């Protein structure tokens, strides 16, 4: 028996960096490649400097866009003075997905040890749009996608996945 086909979701990718351009955005490139390989679409992708208000503007725009179902950010989740993604995005969320950050750090611990304690990766939902905020390193983005997001954004994954919480009418 063939496995049912997973729903194709519409993504937006936001890279937060004060030092890189889109040409040098390895983490954004990795995420886009993984998303498209999984059968989803990237409808928008931008890079902005790590700034609370610029971040809120872009995330708010995507939350309000009925075509965007999933937003992934990369960068700004560390503990340095310039890292502001949690402060920028958390106020926009209707619900937090506490288990995402917990599981991400548990998996990361096997790779980078106690340094994972400085990761403030997190996720939530706003206006039926899933938002996942990842660290800026391509290794961290690969870990998040390969170990968590690939399954949880697959409508055929059991016993549960996040796709059932999205408006997928016309998204397939």
From TrEMBL:
CDD domains for this protein: MogA_MoaB
Pathway(s) served: Cofactor biosynthesis; molybdopterin biosynthesis
UniProt cross-references to SUPFAM superfamilies, sorted A to Z: Molybdenum cofactor biosynthesis proteins (SSF53218)
GO biological process: Mo-molybdopterin cofactor biosynthetic process
Superkingdom as given in the UniProt entry: Bacteria
Oxidoreductase keyword on record: no
GO cellular component terms given for this protein: cytosol
Keywords: Molybdenum cofactor biosynthesis
InterPro entries: MoaB, MoaB/Mog-like_dom_sf, MoaB/Mog_dom, MoaB_proteobac, MoCF_biosynth_CS
Domain MoaB/Mog: 12-156
Record flagged with keyword Amino-acid biosynthesis: no
Pfam family, one: MoCF_biosynth
Role this protein plays: May be involved in the biosynthesis of molybdopterin.
Family to which this protein belongs: Belongs to the MoaB/Mog family.
Xref: PANTHER family: MOLYBDENUM COFACTOR BIOSYNTHESIS PROTEIN B
Protein name: Molybdenum cofactor biosynthesis protein B
Source species: Pleionea litopenaei
Lineage, highest ranks first: Bacteria, Pseudomonadati, Pseudomonadota, Gammaproteobacteria, Oceanospirillales
